[in-house]
Amino acid sequence: MDFRANPFAEQTLGKGKRMGLLFLNPSMRTRLSTQIAAQNLGMEAIVFNVSQDGWSLEFEDGAIMNGITVEHVKDAAPVLARYFDIIGIRTFPFLKNREEDYNEHVINQFIKYCDVPVVSLESATVHPLQSLADIITITDYLPVKDKPKPKVVLTWAPHVKPLPQCVANSFCEWIIAWGGSDFTIAHPAGYGLDGRFISGTNVTNDQAQALKDADFVYVKNWSSYDDYGKMPENESNWMLTRAKLASTNDAKIMHCLPVRRNVELSDEVLDSSSSIVTQQAANRVWAAQAVLAQILNNKDD
Ligand code: CP
User: Fold this and answer.
1) Do the Cβ atoms of 230 and 224 come closer than 8 Å?
2) CB of 29 shorter than 6 A to ligand 1
3) How many of the other CB atoms lie within 10 Å of CB of 237?
4) What is the C-alpha separation between 84 and 213, in angstroms, rounded?
5) CB of 132 within 8 A of CB of 291?
6) pTM of the prediction?
7) Closest CA to 130 of 33, 240, 1
8) Each residue of 159-205: pLDDT tens digit?
9) Is the Cβ–Cβ distance between 17 and 43 less than 8 Å?
10) Are 49 and 40 in contact (CB under 8 A)?
């Protein structure tokens, strides 16, 4: 189904069903695009900002809850599953303990204790709905003249604080699985990603070399995986500027947003016709709608 051409074609699919959108961390695009996608499918979508409005949740098995946590996920999740047919959850990593974050402890607890489908709205290590929108966006701008496969570069960008590796992990995983591009990752030393997400991919610490002949440049900050959650060097010279784009093949510029202007990307790049960040964010609706439709279809099997 081409939801972009006909957003309301499957309004009956979700009729009488409810989606809960639980946010333990802030969001604009994911929250609104998923809410719109659910409503396009006829579902009622209810947003619950857990971190602001809910009880403070405990995730440790056997915890003696005499501190700041008020409700265990074991008690909360089954209740949510009685209220909702599908639950979406956003939960960021703590960036303190790599093993805990990479075990996806928080979202897995919800999956364990909810007996309805749980959708990741970005978890500790991945952001799948973003990546699906990213691949849709790249395919929207194909074909690239004279090339069977476009050159796609994911380039690390500076930031003012350590961010999760989720968007970069997922983008690598999805673009490799898609297989439709010649893909390169560029980052400064110390910012290598988890090998499970980047198998067989070109990786370089030379941004200029990576950008040469690029058709798509995806700009994103992430903190260190090896020195977990740290920023070994905040290489401000990695900001993407117009001058750096001269060697590209008139590349389209991507970023998942929100973006720190003139830190990650210069104004002149973001405000140019090369930037497709708005189209990328718009595609979040169609990515979410495709996934929710698939779940609704399977649920009734
Ligand atoms: N790209 C993205 O996930 O944006 P939000 O954090 O605003 O949801």
Assistant:
1) yes
2) yes
3) 9
4) 48
5) yes
6) 0.96
7) 33
8) 999 999 999 999 999 999 999 999 999 999 999 999 999 999 999 99
9) yes
10) no
17-57: per-residue pLDDT in tens? 999 999 999 999 999 999 999 999 999 999 999 989 999 99
Q: CA–CA distance from 156 to each of 63, 192, 259 (Å)?
A: 38, 10, 13
If you search the block for the tokens 């973001």, which residue do you land on?
Answer: 270
**Residue 246 exposed, middle or buried by CB count within 10 Å (0-12, 13-18, 19+):** exposed
**Residue 94 CA to ligand 1 centre (angstroms):** 17
Structure tokens at 159: 């930031």
Rounded Cα distance, 254 and 134, in Å: 8
Beta-ladder partners of 152: 183, 216
Contact 86, 119 (CB under 8 A): yes
Residue nearest to atom 6 of ligand 1 (CA): 27
Amino acid identity of residue 227, one-letter, is: D
Angle at 170 between CA 197 and CA 161, to 5 degrees: 100
62 CA from centroid of ligand 1 (Å):
33
Torsion (CA) 253, 259, 265, 267 in degrees, nearest 10? 100
Q: What is the dihedral of CA 256, 259, 261, 263, to 10 degrees?
A: -100
CA gap 194, 196 in Å, rounded: 5
The rounded Å distance from CA 2 to ligand 1 centre is 23
**For the chain, first and last CA: distance in Å?**
18
